Amino acid sequence: MENKNTRPRLSRSENTRFVRELLNSRIADCGKPLASFVIDTADLTEEVFRSRYRSGYEILHPEISELAEVAWHTALLSLAQQYTGLPFETVMLRSHIEVAGAALILNPDMRMPSDQRVPRYTNQLAQGTDVVKIAALCRVLSSILSLTEDIRVRHVTADQLYELAWLLKELKIFTGWSQKALDKWMDCADIVNSWVLQKRVQRTLPKPSLYFSLDPEIRVNNLRDLFED
């Protein structure tokens, strides 16, 4: 009899194939195939999630490997949902309730103007787990790293650049996850600063408004055996 408290095993190859077929020949704003961008973002999300833990830690705590799998599939399927409007039920069929529920939090309401969308989106992340918060951060990091400093041939508007810069500033609070998360954030900050110098982002970014960070049960004195050397 199946243990209902155990996450079902998901197939990366099957979900990768599903996303490639779904997005087909669509091109991302950064100019690369959209399917490749979505898969790369999932890989980055897993990389950043695992970076919190020292080598060998997952052997003693296999739940970390399970959560890394959840993070990868969450990043992949939530972006597929955002770009194609996949219904909740389809995401559920490809995964399970943990991933499908996270996608609801991760996808902003694109019907709203950005000056309302960004604050509502970032504050709704308070409902999410650390996996959700890291996935949200990595979405922004991946988008900025893909665009780079040279955006002359990118299919991106000034409003899109402004929104990415705003989100990057808001989500810095999540870089306390690991040194790698902070390093990636700083790389993106350099890129955004170059956009400002090129006068691509001309408006002043609002002050960060998030009043929460990672899950409240995480305390510095409990992390001595978790953070990387």
Short description:
With 229 residues, the protein is an all-alpha fold. The protein is built from ten helices and no strands.
> What structural class results from the helix and strand content?
mainly alpha
User: What radius of gyration results from the CA coordinates?
Assistant: 18 Å
* Unreliable runs: 219-229
The shape, in one word, is globular
Mean pLDDT: 87
SSE pattern? HHHHHHHHHH
The tally of strands reads 0
Q: What is the helix fraction of residues, given as a range?
A: 55-70%
| Percent range for β-strand residues | under 5%
Instruction: Compute the separation of the termini in Å.
Output: 42 Å
* Structure annotation, total helices: 10
Major sheet? none
Features:
about 230 residues; mainly alpha; 10 helices; about 0% strand; globular; disordered C terminus
